[in-house]
Structures are given as C-alpha cells and as structure tokens.
Amino acid sequence: MIRFENVGLRYGLGPEVLRDLTFRVDSHSFQFLTGPSGAGKTSLLRMLFLSLKQTRGLISMFDHDTATLTKDGRATLRGRIGIVFQDFRLLDHLTTYENVALPLRVVGKEEASYRAEVVELLQWVGLGERMDALPPVLSGGEKQRAAIARAVIARPHLLLADEPTGNVDPNLGQRLLRLFIELNKSGTSVVIATHDIALMDEYDARRLVLHEGRLHVYD
Amino acid sequence: MSTIEPLEEVTEPWDGRGAAAERVYAQRPLGPIVPSGSIAGRSLTAVVAIMTFLAALTMGAVMMVVDAASDWQSDVSREITIQVRPVNGRDIEADVRATIDIARGTAGIADVRAYTKEESAQLIEPWLGSGLTLGELPIPRMIVVKLVSGAAPDFAALRRTLAAQVPSASLDDHRGWIDRMRTMAETAVAVGIAILALVIAVTVMSVTFATRGAMAANRPIVEVLHYIGATDSFVAGQFQRHFLILGFKGGAIGGGVAIALFAVLGAVNAWLSGTASSDEAAALFGSFSIGIAGYVAIVVLVVLMAVVTAFASRRTVNQTLEAID
Q1: pTM score, two decimals?
Q2: How close does chain B come to A10, measured CA to CA in Å?
Q3: In a domain, B143, yes or no
Q4: CB of B26 within 8 Å of any CB in chain A?
Q5: Which residue of B has its CA nearest to A200?
C-alpha cells in the first residue's frame, strides 16, 4: 500500500534528518513508529500524509509515485489517509458533530447521506452525549476521541496518529489503543507514532524504530 | 501482553449503517466552515466601510467638479458679444440697428439684444459715477448674441459681413475666455481624477492588508481543511465566499452612508436655493447633486470593494496552502 525506498529528508541546506528509509506499510497492518524525541517521527508522519516532500528516494502511495502527483491528486490521496494530530486540531467554532463530519463535508457529500454514520461513530467512541458541544468545553480525552473519530469517519485506508496518548492518563491511553485495534480489525492500516513504551507493550505489533535518522523495522 | 479493558461507552461495533443513531439526532443546519462574526472579521468590515465611504466622497466631489467645469464652459460658449464703437461721422444708433439685423439674419442665433443707453451707463457707473449723459462720452454699445444650443454659427462670415457693412462693429466670440476656462476645467478634472485614483489605490491596498490580517487568524482552519483532504479550490472557495460577503457588507455600509450624505446635501441645497450664499456656491461648484451616474458609480465602488476583499482572501489562502506544502 505504501512503499518507501531509500528516502532521505533534509530541511534547507542542513544535514539529512532522515536517511535511507526503506520500508512498507501493508494493507490491514498495525505498527508503532517510535524513537527518541527529535528522531524524526513527526517528519516521517508528515511525509506519510503528504505534507512534506522527500529530498531523495521514492515514495509510492496507493500505487502512485508521490513526486509526480498534482495538487488535487495529493488532496485525493490525503482523503484516503486519516490523521490524528498530537494537538487534536479541532475547529473551535464547530460542534463535535460538525468537526467529525468535516472530512465528508469537504468532499461535497450531502449531510443527509452521512448524518447517521457520524452520529453512530460518535456514540461508538463515547461522545454520543457531547455531539453539540464545542471543543473548548471538551476534556482532553474527549477531544482526543473526537480527533480520532474525524480521522476515521471517511473510512481511510491508512490511519496515522501522532502521540495519541501523549495528553491522556494511562487508563484512557489503553482505551484509545483499544479503539485503534478495533479500527485495524475493520480493515484500516494503522501507524501510531509514540515514545510511550508502556503503550507499545500493551499490544504485540510491528515496530518501526527511528534512531539517528535511520529506520529499524522489528516485525 | 496484558489485557485491555473494553471501552465502557461502546455498546456495539461501529458498522457505519447507523440506523438507530439517526433517530436520536435530528437534522439541523451545519455551522459555517469559516467562522462568522470574529473580531478580525468585524474589524475588516469596519475598514472596508470607512474606506468605501471616503472613496465615494472623493468620487462624488470629483464628479461635481467635472460637472461644474463643464457648466462654466458651456455657459460662456453659449454667448458672443458685438461691440459697436462710436466713430465720427457715423450714427451709432443706426450702426447698432444694422448690427442687430445682420446678427439676426445669421443661422444659429437664438436671440440678439442690445444694451440700452441706460444699461450701458449702469455698466460704467462704478468707474465714472452716476448722472452721466451718455451722449457726452464716446461709449461703445454692447450687443449680446445668444446662440442656439448645440449650433455652430459661422463667426468668420458674420465678422466679414460686419466689417463690410458696419466697420465700427467688432465681434468677440469669447474664444480667449473659453480657452482659459477649458484649461482651468481640464486641470481641475485631471487633479480630481488623480486624487480619486490615489484614494481608490489606497482603499484597495488597505482592504487587501486588512483582509490578510483577518486571514491570519484563520490559518489553523486552512491547515485542518488541507490535511483532511480538501482540495485547494474548495478551501479557497470557502474563504472567498465568506470574505466576499464581509467586503460587500462593509462596502454597502460605507457606500450607503455616502449616498445618504449626498442625498441630504442635495436636499439641503435645494431647500436653500434662492438665497445669496446658495446661488454663489451653485455658480462656483454647480449643484450638490451627483446625479444617477454618481449613485451608480458608488454602487460599482461597493462591488469593487467586495471583489477586492474576496480576491485578497483567495490569494492569501493560496499563499498559505503553498507554505503548508
């Protein structure tokens, strides 16, 4: 589904922060992306959701060479990827329901065609009673779940999560992990960037470990 | 590997059909993707309103100057004068009558009127005092010839006829005055148009900067829309529509106040007409009315402001999207 071959990344004229990355993310797979702070996890995630271009090497996503994609082509591929940001990035002027429905709204779908699905997903992640709440009044855990719901509502082929348990207590972290596992079982490939060793110990999954700009894969 | 507690809130797997869910959530209007009523948005509306008002005032003033300049020229060019000088051996009264007849016989002449002796005495009274007997002084007689509106009489032929039949008559077609008046009017119009161009340029620039300022607050929204798969044209379209409305609202407020002001000034001017100060002001500046063309121009200005605001927002969104990528 996703293939990196000898991918390197540098910012400006600086040294390469990521070197010779060669790995695959297969359909229905589940992996943790880990490494010490500053190892380049967020940069790699940004390349995975097409917000950063590699400076060398090949990135193939859904059988497309990302270097040759047009802007609209990149937007289309981004629609097949769900992303959960570390800082949630919910829009404060929209309700939880409207935030979660946003990926469907931006591709021009009528609200009547997705309303039931959004409501059901919100109930599934435990936000059934908070649909009309604005993000500023949600707790950290509720925001995290709303962000996850927004990332999966369009049924992406790939779900990327950047430190999804970074802002929540261990108990909620476990419950969020459970949510990702359920999504993976329903067919979505999952990449969770984290440096939370305890979280990774909760679930036996492939690990992509970044260290000094290089990637080590532990299947 | 430890066991994981199930999510307490999950009652059944998410199957995406949501048959039961729909019953508990009634349809309601979706909130706008770009928030309305933000502080930055209100500031932008105020900037657009003020700049549109100032630009409309300038435009109205320039249009009044153009109208007044055109009136001055046409008033002067609708008249010519013929002067009959007293010459020894010639009967000036007979010369005046002959001149009137020749003038009346010329095509394009609407009215010919000779100043009477008394009127001529009044003309020179400020310089020579009252009580003069005109016959004692060799005072020339003035004949005012009004032209038919739009007609162009053959002054050269008239001048030749007068020279042949009334040698003491000389024709003044006011060309010297008209040329000076034209130069003055053209200068006034050019200065007015230059000021208007500057005001419109400043308006466009300040609206553009204010729009960029308002857009800066919306950058997180642009980023989120981009990351969840919205195309650039969708994102730009959302902001363009929102800012078009903001710009139109601001422009309508500024333009509306300007239109109301001109209407009130026109009404006050009409109410005061006939008084000495009003007549002098009217002679100098023309009427305080900008006419239908002026009101149409203000409406065009309002639309221009809305378009500039929308265009500036689209440009800023595109620049933001370029920066994100």
Answers
A1: 0.71
A2: 15
A3: yes
A4: no
A5: B1
What secondary structure, in 3-state letters, does B223-250 show? HHHHHCCCCHHHHHHHHHHHHHHHHHHH
Mutate: best of B24, B224, B318, partner A, most A CBs <10 A: B224
What is the amino acid identity at position A20?
Answer: D
Spell out which residues of chain B touch residue A53, defining contact as CB-CB under 8 Å: 325
**ipTM value of the model?**
0.87
CATH for A30-53+75-203, among 2.40.50.140, 3.40.50.2030, 3.40.50.300, 1.10.10.10? 3.40.50.300
Residue B182 half-sphere exposure toward CB, CA atoms < 13 A: 8
Share of chain A above pLDDT 70, in %: 100
CA distance A80 to chain B (A): 8
* Candidates A62, A70, A80, A106, partner chain B, best to mutate (most B CBs within 10 A): A106
Q: Which residue from A103, A164, A112, A160 is spatially nearest to B234, judged by alpha carbons?
A: A103
- Between B119 and B7, whose confidence is greater? B119
Does residue A77 register a pLDDT over 70?
A: yes
Question: Chain B contact for A198, CB < 8 A?
Answer: no
SS3 (DSSP) at B91: coil
Task: Give bridge partners of residue B145 from the DSSP assignment.
Answer: B80, B112
CA distances from B198 to B58, B130, B190, B209, B310 (A): 10, 55, 12, 16, 21
Domain end position, chosen among B167, B191, B214: B167
Do B298 and B241 sit in the same domain of this protein?
A: yes
pLDDT value for B9: 47
Question: Range of B98's domain?
Answer: 86-167
Is residue B286 pLDDT above 80, yes or no?
A: no
DSSP B150: T
**DSSP E strand stretches across chain B:** 79-84, 109-114, 141-147, 169-172
* Residue B282 in this model has a pLDDT that exceeds 70: no
Interchain CB contact of B21 with A (< 8 Å): yes
Average pLDDT over residues B2-23: 49
| H helix intervals, A92-139 | 96-105, 111-124
What's the token pair of residue A88?
A: 């949630």
